[in-house]
């Protein structure tokens, strides 16, 4: 079952990859030509930005209005540096929104595990308080539910609960190894 | 879902540490439920047929008494897997893979389907590399975009589209001035939003407070997510991955939850202003992706050795996306992380690294088709006499590396052993608060590490208006000499103040990184070390530049640095300094030079980089031979047999083997004549992870070696599946039925028939490695390293004398170098 979970997870991430790559549809404002012109004689420096494609990205096209008279334009343009830049605002939007959504979901799940779950299971000493770091030696009682794993049968809910119990135990073991006994990861 | 439950399996702990065995229950709990652990294949998936049959069939001839019919024809699931915190058996895994490959090849001649299967099997490796590259590149792109946004969130917010960071918010605004390039009306700082003003002490205070608030919030979120969901996601990850690649098993370290939490909290940790980087954690993220994707392919899911080949390639992918340096990534994997690196892995790693770099480039997180923020674009020449300051930078880098390693290990040891370690969340908050408090006033510490490095690497031209480039404009030279590179000019006021700020930033970063690396958030080391080196290099570079300007008639400058020429490039000094410091800390050599040269895109700077890197490595090695990752491996006591260390003590195998003189005799099993009850009690009364099997106690002639886990699983399976197996049943490691005749005459007393025997020949390893007692230890250690052994039997005149395990060797080496042998924790 963990094989399907693993492959399902990787399929999800690959789909997200494709979404990200797809989200690079070109917005007009997403390409620009940025020309940086330093101070020249008594003209202050300036940065010019216009939204054009790459073939139009050169000083004569981008620097509008031209601050120097016609014969000086070439010398001025030699000083300026024009770069074509492209971005994908959709990619950025999608990424940030996905990130915030996932962090928010994890925080909600954590609050759920912390507050709601003990009420559901009516078990006092089972889940250790997450924010109380003084409590490094927690009372670990093997829940009798573990031995009833076979008795839960094949209902979906039973399997999900069993998987969740196992995962919680796993995380607890990891927490004890890393945070309490400092056996790993200093 | 079957679960094996038996009393004997309650004792299925990892056999190394006494005080841990009570508490460290196997992840599956008292039941051996294979579907819960990430890496253990689920029940019923089959596929073990090709393990037991070809390897242990002694007589490849025909049927008949050579192989008695085993009532349990199917191989027992679970045999051939490993417990958590144990070392794999490389030889067994490799031979498993060879057998599998041989079987597929031989079957492929039979039908088209089988031929297709063999072709797809051969291609599965390449497909897996492609997927690893895609997934890692996508995740790295997401991490880059999110961390840029969150970093800028500490300073302000974009009103028009909140998901843009500062630079993207002002992207289209076309009234930016030359001096204030990053001001635009859509981006509001927090002071502007809260108070409405941008200048003044009140606005500054509000900005300060908001900066500290956001930093604390991000760090708090990071550490509670790590603690709640995946405690293995903290730290850098490279020491543990090195240990995993050498054959150790850490279940859950490369799992889904660790991947998810590491990705999310890495962004938070980097954005909170802490002095850490994301390169080490990106290696961990890439290895997690590889481990998860391995589950899609049978070839890699079932075989731990093949999986480690994929993980080596994934480590290359991690560095490749961190620096945009595929070749450097492959060399990093070869030099730093991998234990065995066959040539096939080299080609595949390169492919995966290229795919990842390409994916990252198409996501384009920086908007300029660059993969890393501090790409260097200048190609100014350097002079041979500048090798002097470059070597000075190398010495500084070596000294810094040695100092940093000692200080960091001392701090981490204090965190491990004293009360400091009991308050991880509080520690993170205090360090973040202190870092934010002290770093806000100085603009060079306020910016993120990558931005700082990018600014320091920048060569000043007319187009720059930053403080670091504020030189005095000389009245008669306004035209650039060649291609926008300017002649050396005297420093202006802005530059002097920038130098002061940089010096303070250097001290601050040097001290704060010691405390930050190793905290319970994902933390990497590359960027802070490079930042320290870049600051030092830039300071030296500007110093040299001013020295050359004001004293251009000294002998050393006379030939090449005439006034009006651009001779000294401080950006180059910064780059060399960054390489020197990173080399001093991690002791990377080739990979570092290649990464830096891929960053610059040219071969001009290879000689200065190599000079600085070599000097830094030699100076740092004079103080201690270990890099930061080896030091952390030793601190945590991982069973990592260092492949580069020389063993130059003249001891013999008999000095290191167990049992020693005062110990009880070696616990052996006999090939016939022991009952199930006796075997179980022997296994339970000891903690050894394997037992040699001898012909008889008197002769002590070696038959083979059997692992504890396989033994217990098989006996338990026999008790459940086979009828009539009780405590008095015989356990047989022989092929044929026992030839003893019970002395009872056949038909007179109809006594009860003897209970059926348990045949365990299939789990016996018939070719254990042996050395004689007079084998020198350096050859033995070499055998362990080259073959990846876990244990080796010691014989004397052909009779079994004792056993040497990897842990014994590590303890012996620790004892020789006067370290505490009990610090080797795991088995």
Summary keywords:
heterodimer, A: 186 residues, mainly alpha, three-stranded antiparallel β-sheet, 5 helices, 10% strand, elongated, B: 827 residues, three-stranded mixed β-sheet, disordered N terminus
Task: Outline the structure in words.
Chain A has 186 residues and is mainly alpha-helical. Chain A contains 5 helices and 3 strands. A 3-stranded antiparallel β-sheet of chain A has the order 2-1-3, with helices on one face. In chain A, a hairpin with an 8-residue loop joins strand 1 (31-37) and strand 2 (46-50). Chain A is elongated. Chain B is mostly helical and 827 residues long. Chain B contains 30 helices and 11 strands. In chain B, the strands form 4 sheets. Chain B has a 3-stranded mixed β-sheet. In chain B, strands 4-7-8 form a 3-stranded mixed β-sheet.
As a percent range, the share of helical residues of chain A equals 40-55%
Quaternary class? heterodimer
H/E series of chain A: HEEHHEHH
Global mean pLDDT of chain B: 83
Alpha-carbon Rg of chain A, integer? 30 Å
Distance between the termini of chain A: 33 Å
Shape of chain B: elongated
Mean pLDDT of chain A: 76
At a glance:
Chain A has 186 residues and is mostly helical.
Tell me the layout of helices and strands.
The complex is a heterodimer of chains A (186) and B (827).
Chain A: H1 2-22, E1 31-37, E2 46-50, H2 59-62, H3 73-79, E3 81-86, H4 89-121, H5 156-180
Antiparallel strand pairs in A: 1-2, 1-3
Chain B: H1 18-21, H2 49-56, H3 90-107, H4 112-153, E1 156-158, H5 166-169, E2 187-189, H6 190-194, H7 201-229, H8 238-245, H9 256-271, H10 279-294, H11 298-301, H12 304-323, H13 326-337, H14 343-363, H15 387-417, H16 424-439, H17 443-446, H18 449-457, H19 493-516, H20 526-550, H21 555-558, H22 570-586, H23 590-600, H24 606-623, H25 628-636, H26 653-656, E3 669-670, E4 674-675, H27 676-685, E5 690-694, E6 702-707, H28 708-721, E7 730-732, E8 758-759, E9 770-772, H29 777-787, E10 791-796, E11 799-805, H30 806-816
Parallel strand pairs in B: 3-5, 7-8, 9-10
Antiparallel strand pairs in B: 1-2, 4-7, 5-6, 10-11
Helix pairs in contact in B: 2-3, 4-9, 4-10, 4-12, 4-14, 7-9, 7-16, 8-25, 9-10, 10-12, 12-13, 12-14, 13-14, 13-23, 15-19, 15-20, 15-22, 15-24, 15-25, 16-19, 18-20, 19-20, 20-22, 22-24, 23-24
